Amino acid sequence: MPGSSSTFVAGLTSAALAAVAFLTFQASANVPAGLAAARRGGVPAKAAKASGDRKHPTALPARSGLGERVVYALDGDRVWLVASDGTVERTFGVAPGSVDPLPGSYSVTSRAGAVTGTDGTPIEHVVRFTTVDDVTIGFSAALDGELPEPDPEVRTGGIRESVADGEAMWEFATIGRAVVVVP
């Protein structure tokens, strides 16, 4: 049967291409909105927010890593402190600065008990984990308890927490602790 093996190979190739096309379609349908429009460093935080909230805004995001870690969701302005067994010890809302970190995995690089923030506000429990275009990004609590909207004219990387949440972050996020930023 001349040609039957070439017909068989052509059929297998067509089936393989169809399977790859189907899997590509499936994967693209499940990409989070924030990841599909990936930001580059230094993008203003509020301008880069993706539309569409998750069904349970306090639920730990999928694919947010394993083990003991801090998870920070850019779109939801929310933080989770996650124990080594994957249970959430605490979750709380935050007020980001004007510059967001890129989604990815980081670790706590430095901490400060009390300093003055870039915006001139006295802050405490500062936990830093990255820098974007010379802007240091980290969590902190304003001593006055305010969670202000960032001034778009001032490039700030402070992710503000309440005083109580700042204390919890300070106890949890020691040097080297993993910080996972998700869209």
Question: Which overall shape is indicated by the principal axes computed on the Cα atoms?
Answer: globular
Strand order of the largest sheet: 3-2-1-9-4
Which blocks of ≥5 consecutive residues have pLDDT under 50? Answer: 13-54
Radius of gyration: 22 Å
For the largest beta-sheet, the strand count, sense and barrel status come to: 5 strands, mixed
State which percent range the strand residues make up: 25-35%
Mean of residue pLDDT values: 78
Distance between the termini: 57 Å
Query: Helix tally?
Result: 3
Q: What structural class do the secondary elements suggest?
A: alpha+beta
Element-by-element helix/strand order: HHEEEEEEEEHE
Strand count:
9
Helix content: 10-25%
Describe this structure in words.
The chain is of the alpha+beta class and 183 residues long. Helices cover 22% and strands 30% of the residues. The longest helix is centred in the first third of the chain and has 26 residues, at 4-29. The strands form 2 sheets. A 5-stranded mixed beta sheet has the order 3-2-1-9-4, covered by helices on one side. Residues 13-54 have low confidence and may be disordered. The chain contains 3 helices and 9 strands, in the order H-H-E-E-E-E-E-E-E-E-H-E. The relative contact order is 0.19. The termini are far apart. Strand 6 (122-132) and strand 7 form a beta hairpin. The protein has helices at residues 4-29, 33-36, 163-172, and strands spanning 69-73, 78-82, 88-93, 104-107, 110-116, 122-132, 135-142, 158-161, 178-182.
